[in-house]
Amino acid sequence: MLDPIAIIRQLGHATVERIWRLGFASRFFWAVLMHSGSSFRRLPLTLREIYFSGVLSLLIIMVSGLFVGLVLGLQGYEILQRFGSTEALGSLVALSLTRELGPVLAAIFFASRAGSSVTAEIGLMKATEQLKAMDMMAINPIARVVAPRFWGGVISMPLLAAIFSAMGVLGGWLIGVVVIGVDDGSYWSQMQASVDFRYDIWNGVVKSFVFGIAVSLIAVFEGYDSVPTAEGVSRAITRTVVTSVLTVLALDVVLTSFMFRGA
Q1: Domain tally, the chain
Q2: Residue of higher predicted confidence among 185 and 154
Q3: Is the Cβ–Cβ distance between 127 and 230 less than 8 Å?
Q4: φ, ψ for residue 195 (rounded to 5)?
Q5: How far is CA 77 from the centre of its chain?
Q6: Structural domain boundaries, residue 201
Q7: Residues 89, 174: contact at Cβ < 8 Å?
Q8: Is residue 109 part of a domain?
Q9: pLDDT tens per residue across span 21-36
Q10: List of residues 6+ apart from 76 with CB closer than 8 A
Q11: I want to staple 53 with a disulfide (CB 3.0 to 4.6 A). Which of 99, 156, 230, 234 is the partner?
């Protein structure tokens, strides 16, 4: 038989724990910002993390962006053909990618590849007591380990989202113009006429930057706060991917409601 008091006690304990973790994450984020100057003074550290988070994620970003563009081209052509507007295929592909799919999908792939790796790296450093060793040598682990990885992800994310969108546009052109036979001039001219720099491209860049902050913060926080065991690190990696995906989707709803309200 269920005990109502025990259930209420468990719910209260879970709520307090979530609030405590949220407060600790806020303090952790503030500490990362306070030590960001030292990470940029040690520029090779940050450049190495940009390479790790950005360059090593290029393959999955480019291939997935190309495939998403191919699918958009196929589906968009089928829909536009019903209304006799196949020449607007370029507009459909470009607007879908720059406004929504580019930043969102790039952030999800980034969290799956780079975010999980950052969490695993920091979690293993904690499990092997490397972070404690840094403290004993008067080296701040947030300044030396966390901040460069955070800013490496934040800087890489907008660039990866732009590459994802560019590859998607190329994929839409390949399937629409080369394979199906849509007019090449109509594809590019309609795209150029319909895509606005402020409402489409710039808002996509802002989205990708916000997503980069969120995903990078979740990745470094989960690694730093993980239980220093093999099971604890594996759970932290799972939390990083799941929390990042849900956070990206929630932020996308909020940002879209503000950005495109008057567009």
Answers
A1: 1
A2: 154
A3: yes
A4: -85, 120
A5: 29
A6: 35-259
A7: no
A8: yes
A9: 888 888 888 988 888 8
A10: 89, 92, 93, 96, 172, 176
A11: 156
